[in-house]
Structure formats: C-alpha cells, structure tokens
Specification:
The chain has ten helices and eleven strands. By secondary structure, the chain is of the alpha+beta class. It folds into two domains: 166 residues, Regulatory protein AraC (Jelly Rolls); 116 residues, Arc Repressor Mutant, subunit A (Orthogonal Bundle). The strands form two sheets. It has a seven-stranded antiparallel sheet with strand order 1-2-3-10-5-8-11, with helices on one face. A four-stranded antiparallel sheet has the order 4-9-6-7, with no helix packed on it. Strand 1 and strand 2 form a beta hairpin. Helix 2 runs antiparallel to helix 3, helix 4 packs across helix 5 and helix 4 packs across helix 6. It starts with 5 loop residues before the first strand and ends in an 8-residue tail after the last helix. Keywords: DNA-binding, Transcription, Transcription regulation. It comes from Anaerocolumna sedimenticola. This is Helix-turn-helix domain-containing protein. Pfam families: AraC_binding, HTH_18.
Length: 293
C-alpha cells in the first residue's frame, strides 16, 4: 500500500516524505533540510533509492560498506542503493545539510554525469552549495497535495541535477567535457544537416549540438572518416543531383537550394564530383518523362 505524503517541520528540521511518483525517468521521493545536533548518527537500512546530500555548514563522517569518508561544508555526498550506510555529525561542528531522495530509470546515468557513484560518493562542489538550497526549498514549499505541485517538484529535481551536471562538466578537461558519445553528437549533426543543408556553416552545426568546432571535426573524422565541411559539401551536391534528375527546377534554382549563390561555383563543384556539368548530368540521368531545359 502506498504511503501518504507527509510534511514535517520543527526547529532545525523540515522534510517532505513519500512523494507520489510522477515519471519513470526521474522522480522525487523525499527532500528536506536538517541542522543536526552534535554527534547525530543515522543508520540507513539498505536503501532502494538514491539519497543526495549537500552540506551547507559543519562537518561529519560517512561510512559506506565499511569505508570511511570525511565530509565537510561545500561537499556533496551520495548514499547509493543496496549498501549499508551510516553517517555521523561532528561533535564540535555538526553539519547542516539539504537532501533529496530520488530514483528512476535515468537516475544512475544522471549521477554518473554528475561525477557521483557508489565508488565515488563524495565530491567537492564546483559551485557554492547554497546554489542548491533554493531548489530544495521550492520542493518543500510545494507541500500542498495538488497535481500542479507534483509536476513542479519533478521540475525542481531536474533543475537541481542539471545544475549539478553543469558544475561537474565545467571541471573536466576539454576532451572530456561533453556528456554524450561521439556517435550521439554525430547523429544529431547529420539530422541537423539534412534539414538545413542549404543555408548553414560548420560553426552552425557545432553551435546547434553544443560542442566546439574542433571537437566536431574530430568526431566526424572518427565516425565518418571525413571532416564536417567535406560531409556538408558532399551532402549538398548529392541533394542537388537528386533535384536535377527528379525535378524541372532550373540549375540556378537548384544551386541556391544547395547553398551556392553563384551558379558558376556550383557547376564547378558539381563537375569535380560527378565528372560532368549539371546540365549534362540532367540529360544523361533525368527521371522525368518530359525533357527539361
């Protein structure tokens, strides 16, 4: 039986629990803020969701499967799934933290992009931890049970994790800054080219998919064995050849559609690739029943 959502607030503690699941990709279960008393100890039963803590002040220790981690202000620590956990607030400087508990089909991937895992459960935040505080407070403020609030909380969780991923990405070396595989970036680039080939430059492709031009060039050569510029030119000429043989558009109109304002330059590039001029190519390969000038 599903537990009812509860909202508790006392001195030094605020918590929203048992939040109704809204999506499969990512969903919020608990969230809260706590100022722990000195020596406060919490023993987790084997968790079946992820618990992510952001330490606002103070310090403490984390024990995961017998491994000890020292955690302090501006640190983030993850309680992973399926392992025994204990954490303890320091006796002299007990920590204050905010936390979110969540799960979903993509939760593990998002945490990996953020640089957190069972093997690497503690990270130093690349941005002030206080940045995350308003996001968790928004989750807590949507404690009234409405459909709109349920949707808002999921949005706040996505916002928090995307901020965490961005912060982690900013610390990576240039060759490791991009989240997706080279195949994924190339796939999106090819789709963009197919829809916009007549009026784009290579820099437009890179900007569209969010990577720099040199990285775009390297992944094109890796995946397709050609540069983006070579692929774009070949694609334009291939589409032009298709129009030449299947439409009665003038060669000038086709050259413009293919991204060439100067028909002479288009004819020169076309002949270099196909061995004949566009006009001769049309005469030899036209699929139209009526002759075309």
């Amino acid at each position: 039986m599903e537990k009812p959502t509860t909202y508790n607030t006392t001195v030094g503690f605020r918590c929203l629990r048992n939040i109704k699941k809204q999506t499969n990709d990512l969903y919020l279960v608990h969230c809260g803020q706590q100022q722990c008393p000195p020596g406060y100890t919490y023993n987790h039963k084997i968790p079946n969701e992820y618990h992510l803590h952001f330490v606002l002040n103070g310090k403490g220790s984390l024990i995961i499967d017998g491994k000890h981690y020292h955690v302090k202000k501006e640190n983030i620590f993850l309680i992973p799934k399926d392992v025994s956990i204990q954490y303890n607030a320091d006796m002299e400087e007990p920590w204050e933290y905010i936390w979110v508990t969540f799960d979903g089909d993509k939760a593990t991937d998002y945490l990996t992009y953020a640089g957190l895992s069972a093997d690497n459960p503690v990270a130093v935040s690349a941005i002030p931890i206080a940045t995350y505080l308003p996001m968790v407070k928004k989750m807590l403020d949507t404690n009234i049970l409405t459909l709109a609030n349920e949707i808002r909380r999921v949005g706040y969780l996505f916002d928090l994790l995307s901020t965490l991923i961005d912060a982690q990405s900013s610390t990576r070396s240039k060759d490791k800054r991009y989240d997706y595989s080279s195949e994924t970036y190339v796939e999106h680039a090819l789709q963009y080219i197919s829809l916009n080939y007549g009026h784009i430059k290579v820099c437009d492709i890179a900007n569209y998919i969010g990577i720099n031009r040199s990285y775009l060039t390297s992944i094109f050569k890796k995946e397709l064995q050609v540069s983006p510029q070579e692929y774009l030119v070949n694609y334009r000429l291939r589409k032009a050849a298709e129009l030449i043989t299947t439409t009665n558009l003038s060669i000038q109109d086709i050259s413009i559609k293919a991204g060439y304002d100067n028909p002479f330059n288009f004819s020169k590039m076309f002949k270099n690739t196909y061995g004949v001029s566009p006009k001769t190519y049309r005469m030899e390969n036209s699929k139209l029943t009526e002759p075309v000038d």
